[in-house]
Amino acid sequence: xxxxxxxxxxxxxxxxISAFEPYIADNSINLVVKQDNHRxxxxxxxxxxxxxxxxxxxxxxxxxxxxxCVLVSHSSENKTTLKTIWLDIQLAFKCIGIRRVFKVLKxxxxxxxxxxxENHIKPMILGVMQTHKGKGTAAxxxxxxxxxxxxxQLPVMLDTVSEYNVGxxxxxxxxxxxxxxxxxxxxxxxxxxxxxxxx
Length: 199
Prior knowledge:
This protein is an alpha+beta fold.
């Protein structure tokens, strides 16, 4: 596993695009990304945004083979700055589209309702190149990231709309603590079981 630097931004964005571009069903990515002829370009804006947020307030991890990545956010480090305001504005105009902002805000409200008020760690997004799906790359990276945080005492939370990902995360010790369907598709909220976190 490698901890990414800003030099790895293009590689991380390419991994995330490869992972999520094929999916056109309702999910959190397609909720944020305006669905039009510029969908791919808009997805690039979103993935660059997530990379910048992770670099500012968490970490970005790359698999040893460079085919998978995990972006992590530390809630204790999150803050509003001129840079984050500028990133949010760019995301709104270049990715979301003004008419979709309210749906995205509703998604954020749902997340706030289900995430703990206390400081926590959040794997924001996990992506693996389509050519390496099902080959264990993502699983190995998740195990390495889990080991990296082995001494962490904060809650580790994440959310996903994918039933497949729910099963994958459960293998790593996450438990479903809530499920929301008010956006027209299910969002599963999971928390790492403290009793098995360090195993």
